[in-house]
Amino acid sequence: MRRRRAAWLQIGLVTAAAVVAVIPMPSALVERVYARGVYPPLQRALTTVSNLTDVALFDPLVVVMTAGLVGLAVARLRRGRGRRLRTAGRIAADLVVATAVVYLAFLLLWGLNYRRLSVRDTLDFDAARVNAASLDRTLDLATRELNRLSPAAHADEWPSLAAMPDRLGGAFAVAQADLGLGRGAVPGRPKRTLLSYYFVRAAIDGMTDPFALEVLLNGEVLPFERAFVVAHEWGHLAGYAVESEASFLAWLTCMRGGAQAQYSGWLALFLQLAGDVPPDAYRAAIERLDEAPREDLRAIVRRVSRSVPVVREAARRAYDRFLRANRQPSGVKSYDEVVSLIVGTRFEPYFRPVRRPS
């Protein structure tokens, strides 16, 4: 009887995961019920707990899950001697059930944010504003801002990763309020992880743990990159799963910080603009930069060049498939869409985005 109940429970979990994976969900409903209802208090609770330690909880979670699956498979093999086909089938079933459980937990704790309304639907955004002239103006503005901010940004010591919540948390709260989030997300404590070795070789700056809702960072991210990279992961914690939208919130956060945070935000935008403007215009903009921001750009290129091309490409393809599986048709190209989001949005003074009426 107990085995039968366990079997039905497993069937139910797999069926639920399959149904949720394919069933259409109205974005407005997900926005109202999950993104602005269930998720915010869940994020505040989980991130507050994970912030109590500088240990990346994602690391032992992966180790325990992997060890558990391996141990279960070994036990199956020992009990199933002489019945290879049946044992293989049970191990495969265990993997399917485990995958279903992880997927359902992923959706509940964070992943449903992929199905919320696009931030474009909540802002005064018009794709017609994104054209060659406006992109050229944005590149020119980024160039001038980098030159203006560089002396002040480089005059002081760059804040450490541990100092980021104190240095940038207030700006993050204001940026969230500008997007109409009300009581915003709790900033995550940037943490080192066992995945850093992989991050460096795959040219990954960081990630958001979708289970403990914590921020994991590549330890080699340069000091002047930290504000934007950390704020980008905080954007994910705020429920913006789409990469361009997390970067949009990160840029708004940097604009509300001090000179160093603003410099980090403009530097990130300057790099993103490389794929949106003609190469000659981009090279000319680099020539107009002062030596300090030019050297910072060269340092970023040197850091990324230490990655391993094969690992970097494999990581890119895997993440592209992950994003497409989560209903992001542009895949990893969604990173680049932050430029059109910034350029196509109407702002009030101090880069306060204009929102559409509710």
Given helix and strand content, the structural type is mainly alpha
Low-confidence stretches: none
- Main sheet properties: 3 strands, mixed
Query: What share of residues are in beta strands?
Result: under 5%
Number of helices: 15
Q: What distance separates the N and C termini?
A: 53 Å
CA-based gyration radius: 22 Å
In summary, what is this structure?
The chain is mainly alpha-helical. The chain has helices spanning 2-22, 27-50, 58-79, 84-109, 119-122, 132-155, 164-178, 196-202, 226-237, 243-255, 259-272, 279-288, 291-305, 309-325, 338-344, and strands spanning 190-191, 206-209, 214-217, 347-348, 352-353.
Name the descriptors.
single chain; mainly alpha; 3-stranded mixed sheet; 358 residues
Notes on the protein architecture:
With 358 residues, this protein is mainly alpha-helical. The protein folds into 2 domains: 2-115, no CATH class; 119-353, no CATH class. It has 15 helices and 5 strands. It has a 3-stranded mixed sheet. Strands 4-5 form a two-stranded antiparallel ribbon. The radius of gyration is 22 Å and the shape is globular.
Indicate the topology.
Layout: H1 2-22, H2 27-50, H3 58-79, H4 84-109, H5 119-122, H6 132-155, H7 164-178, E1 190-191, H8 196-202, E2 206-209, E3 214-217, H9 226-237, H10 243-255, H11 259-272, H12 279-288, H13 291-305, H14 309-325, H15 338-344, E4 347-348, E5 352-353
Parallel strand pairs: 1-3
Antiparallel strand pairs: 2-3, 4-5
Helix pairs in contact: 1-4, 3-4, 6-11, 6-12, 7-10, 9-10, 10-11, 10-15
